[in-house]
Amino acid sequence: MAGIRLHVIAPLVLVAVNKCARDPSVYVRKCAANALPKLHDLRLEEHASSLEEVVGILLNDHSPGVVGAAAAAFASVCPNNLSLIGKNYRRLCEILPDVEEWGQIILIEILLRFAIARHGLVKESIMFSLHCTESSHSEKDGSDVNFELEKDSVDRGGAYNFELATMVSRCYIEGPDEYLSRSSYSKRVPFELHGVKFTSGKTNDDVKILLHCTSPLLWSNNSAVVLAAAGVHWVMAPREDVKRIAKPLLFVLRSSNASKYVVLRNIQVFAKVLPSLFAPNFEDFFICSSDSYQIKALKLEILSTIATDSSITSIFKEFQDYIRDPDRQFAADAVAAIGLCVQQLPKMANACIDELLALTRQEFLINGSGDGEGDVLLQAIMSIKSIIKQDPSSHEKVIIQLVRRLDSIKVPAARAMVIWMVGEYSSLGDIIPRMLTTVIKYLAWCFTSEALETKLQILNTAVKVLLCAKEEELCTFSRIFSYVLELAECDLNYDVRDRARFLKKLCSCSLGSQGAEEVTNCLPQQKDLPHVVAKCIFGKQTKLVSPEPVNCRFYLPGSLSQIVLHAAPGYEPLPKPCSLNVPQEINATVRGATYSDSEETDDHGSSSGPSDEENASDYGSQNSITGSSGSDHTGETGFTSECDENADPLIQISDIGNASENQNAVSQSSADLGELISHRALESWLDDQPGSSNPCISKQTEVNRSSARISVGNVGNEVKPKIYALLDPANGNGLKVDYSFASEISDISRLLVCIEVYFKNCSSELMSDITLVFEESNKGLDATDQASLANER
Fold this sequence. Notes:
Mean pLDDT: 75
Shape: elongated
Helix content: 40-55%
Strand order of the largest sheet: 4-3-5
Largest sheet: 3 strands, antiparallel
Number of helices: 38
Radius of gyration: 41 Å
């Protein structure tokens, strides 16, 4: 019925779901939970509160199958109503390992959101320690771990890991779109370190039980469950316990290619924030021949991130093998990974540069023959460029070797990169300035035969050399620059012509005799203005600017958005820390009552049996009151005595003192057992000394013991029987007949069942001579008993 999705029958479906949610059968209740998202899709606002009420009932169920379906219904119907979770939080954590796999994924996310909304982030977690270094260093219990993290971050690039961890944690809570919408990357406001937004994982019981119940799921057969459990430990676990997610994630890498790609996407983020997490297992990220290109690219990036001084030698040997791979695009990525490793470990710069320079000497690379060969050469020169940027003065000979190979390099993008180095480091050392004149003349001579990007780079390099030229070389460079401008103004490409006109106006004061007339007509302030503008545009970079990560969009682990790198439909970031205010009464109920429930179910050996009987009694009692067929006659039958206020209570408890006090003992009746006795008094009545097991103490306090007498009344009068319809007034000419099963034992035989039959005249005429006929299945109408009622009420 719910699958029909018609607004007309939605009220009927809601009534059926509300009834089935209290059914004794587990499968019926599970079907009711599966029908709730379909009802919610109809977008009927008047049924929203009813749907949330049914979800709350199903979340309170003791069957794991029902809880899994109820979690899916909660995520669809009311994902932000976390107060429903607070009432059953601990019981849901305990039942989590028994829920079906796909229900575990949803339930883990719900429990994580509640823990953060209720208690906030954990102070001992990575998300807190890497973001708030000063606060975490002040904690004495985590000083060793903080020192290890600080040492690791210094070896790998200083504050970049801390900055990345800040970005990840804020993207988890704020969402990447809100985080990236801020005006400046460097002026983003850090977290507000109020005490209410953070909790301690060592003292918070809710956090401890969540981590304890999700730990077995790290070795689940379902890859998605493993990733969801790892996400909880990544966000909430203390720093020393995060390492437990490494081996389960690496084990999942041996599964299918689809699962492998998803897991690698998440490991990529984990490794960037905390490289030491996967550094000991770097061999698991070596490339296999059966890996797809996407998986190979992710493994290369992870290897370049987790490389250490002890593992860089093995990783570098692997990269050398990857360069010879037939897939030249993958080979180019391997060359780029070498440059990333050198940025992480500057000690390997000399060895890596020698290998990269060897690539620039290979004929099939420098000529660009074959598919992808030009990309390999370009990546090699780009890696060399990134290494030189770290320490230009120590790599002067590398620049000279590249300039000497310029004539043999035929790839336009690679030639443009080498020409950029000539202009950028034109004043570096003693050899490069002396060879500038020859290099600039060579570039002017081959200008007309170059590609577009190379021509534009030649113009930029000529301006840089002209601005930094000495007085004795200024005339020569001005003539060469003027010659290049004339060639560019007559070029067929309009981009080159526009660039030439722009540079001619910008450097008119430095062109010597070519711009003498313009110079004489300019004011002193106007003479210096173009030179200042040119210095700002083409000036040297004096500081090494740490690049902002290209991919600054981070989403929750295990989400589809983390794979596609944009917010997928239905994605929601984590709630704001401590945004959920749970009343203390409910919180106390969650902390106390749930443990007693779990112990009670464990004592019975099975949680599904008692729950079915309990739900069945609830369902029967509700139908006896609100049923459509038998709810209107209960007030006129023999059950009116139950509503008597003067009736005796069902349970009576009397406190009996010592022998001297027994004469004055007064029995007390109470409707609220919590106000009458305490837990300690009840233990003393049961001859159990609370808080001690010493027999000597029990003998000393034997005189002060109290005792109690508990008397139970007639339970049969307090329980309303379930009434069934035997004859409808429409079919019985106004006569309505209902029956119920009596609790008395038959006087004839114990194998017989007693039935109470209720007659009601719904018509305006009197009825008489009513006959009851009992038919047996194998005999027709042989045995009949007749009973006549002369008068009908």
